[in-house]
Amino acid sequence: MTPSPRTDTLSASKARLKNAVHRSEAASRDGILERMFTFAFKGLVYPQIWEDPDVDMEALKLTPQSRMVTIASGGCNVMSYLTADPAEITAVDLNRAHVALGRLKLLAAKRLPNYDSFYRFFGEADEKANIAAYERFLRDELDEDSRAYWEGRDLVGWGRKRITLFSRDLYHHGMLGYFIGIGHFIAKRYGIDPKHFLKARSIDEQRSFFETALAPLFDKRLVRWATSKKMSLYGLGIPPAQYDALVSASAEGNMSEVLKGRLKKLACDFSIQDNYFAWQAFSRGYAPQAGESTGEAGPLPPYLKREHFDDIRQRADRVRVLNRNFTEHLQGEADDSLDAYVLLDAQDWMTDAQLNALWTEITRTARPGARVIFRTAAEPTLLPGRVVDETLDRWTYEEEESLRLGRQDRSSIYGGFHLYVYNG
Question: What is the DSSP string of 242-261?
Fold first, then answer.
């Protein structure tokens, strides 16, 4: 019996993910953990991407001539990059759920009747009207693989179609959504409701809430025990190798202190009036918008802002979303043809061989002045001593600019932000 094209697609997707994550023998402790992560990563991980697109766009200096390649993740930043008016964006991802989400967002921008229906679908993501909109405007035009994903069913959803996530609050789901939900549950068990953080009216009040209510949670025995397990961060999409990098970067050598430090930056370094990442962490959704209970518009990612909707609708055809790894895609691109590369934190997963294969292709395809950005669990850039000098010497590491931009990243969960510029 000949496999269907969709079966071949699923098999290829699984193989790419295994190649990216698996480093250890299957029977070893780390090998078992890696395979458990691979199994978990097959589903939806990030309903919202956790990298700040405003920082990205400042670093990349996109122009109407820019051709860029990025990892798709939840698709938010891909959509937000369109506000900078680049010529072309190719978004790649090993996770078919992320590919399906990115394609759904792009089609929705083009086919939903107006901004309000688009915001209801992806900003609120908890209305039955979204399912009716999907059936009327999107289903018949969605590509076969994405339609099969959204109309498929899984045990996590108690047998309901995945598209119903948009009527059940998308941001409470996916591995990230469940991780945040567990965090809220544990905090409440200790008498702390994280949503009360959002009542703060100043940075000083935010800091006070963190120091008196949130920080002590990380000293609780249960929290320290749970975070000492590598599986505890699967909900953040962090595989065992990246967990080890995080712990080794900590002066205290334990994950509880690492997480406390990252949460402190999220809670204390930026006003909640301008940080939609904090709203996602502390309220499990976006801030109320104008016309709702506050009467004021809360912070949103660029692609969800009303003033950008028409531009995104007009430019959505400039984006391709592919189930592919970064190096594999670049092998099909021409020499000297790309201007911008967004690697997220994917290099934290990679072996030296994988890093060198990736940077060989980035260097071959880069135009003079091309820019690469990525984030790392630890603070320092991980490339020196791992990528061969012959390749890395063709790039300039913008250390001061990287530090400045890293301090501005409102998502706050990474140790370092890094910008490299191609010398040609």
Answer: HHHHHHHT-SS-SHHHHHHH
Q: How far is CA 92 from CA 35, 120, 138, 343, in A?
A: 22, 26, 22, 10
Strand stretches in 52-148, DSSP E = 67-71, 88-93
Give the separation between CA 332 and CA 327, rounded to whole angstroms. 9
The closest alpha carbon to 58, from 414, 398, 349, belongs to 398
In Å, how far from its chain's centre is CA 45?
A: 9
What is the strand order of the sheet 366-376 is part of?
319-323, 88-93, 67-71, 338-342, 366-376, 416-422, 395-397
In whole angstroms, give the CA distance from residue 120 to residue 169.
Answer: 11
Residue 421 three-state SS: strand
Q: What is d(CA 290, CA 287) in angstroms, rounded to the nearest whole number?
A: 10
Which DSSP letter does residue 167 get?
Answer: G
Which two tokens mark 84? Answer: 């900078």
CA proximity to 161, closest of 140, 174, 171, 147:
147
> Can you give the pTM of this predicted structure?
0.89
| Residue whose token pair is 């800091």 | 207
What is the DSSP secondary structure assignment for residue 153, as one 8-state letter? B
pLDDT tens for each residue of the chain, 424 residues long: 444 545 445 555 555 555 555 455 555 555 554 554 555 556 899 999 999 999 999 999 999 999 999 999 999 999 999 999 999 999 999 999 999 999 999 999 999 999 999 999 999 999 999 999 999 999 999 999 999 999 999 877 778 999 999 999 999 999 899 989 999 999 999 999 999 999 999 999 999 999 999 999 999 999 999 888 877 676 666 767 777 777 776 666 788 888 899 999 999 999 999 999 999 999 999 998 865 444 457 999 999 999 999 999 999 999 999 999 999 999 999 999 999 999 999 998 899 999 999 999 999 999 999 999 999 988 899 999 999 999 999 999 999 999 999 999 999 989 999 999 999 8
**CB-side exposure of 16: number of CA atoms within 13 Å?**
20
Exposed e or buried b per residue across 43-74, where buried means at least 16 C-beta atoms within 10 angstroms of its C-beta: ebbbbbbbbbbbbbbbbbebeeebbbbbbbbb
| Beta-strand pair 67-71/366-376 | unpaired
Q: Are 155 and 31 in contact (CB under 8 A)?
A: no
Whether the CB-CB separation of 37 and 23 falls below 8 Å is answered with: no
